[in-house]
Amino acid sequence: MTNTAPQTVPLSVQLVAKTEFDLTTGDLARHFGVAPLTIARWADAGLIPCQRLPARGHRRFRPADVEALARSMAEGPVAA
């Protein structure tokens, strides 16, 4: 019997079926390991662009913007 631990799938692979502005605040929170409110604050501070849905104002994000934020965070601390 082999021990198979769950593997982390890169965000870019997880998002193959996603379209532009299709990621939710929850998707980003899970990816970055932070609370959804943190993602909302980052968006409000302009750290990551988002689109607001008209009915309830929920935020949606593009995979390319998420990956750009992840790269910038890897380079150093993000100033809010």
From TrEMBL:
Top-level taxon in the UniProt lineage: Bacteria
HTH merR-type domain segment(s): 24-70
Pfam families: MerR_1
Alphabetical list of InterPro entries matching this protein: DNA-bd_dom_put_sf, MerR-type_HTH_dom
Entry protein name: HTH merR-type domain-containing protein
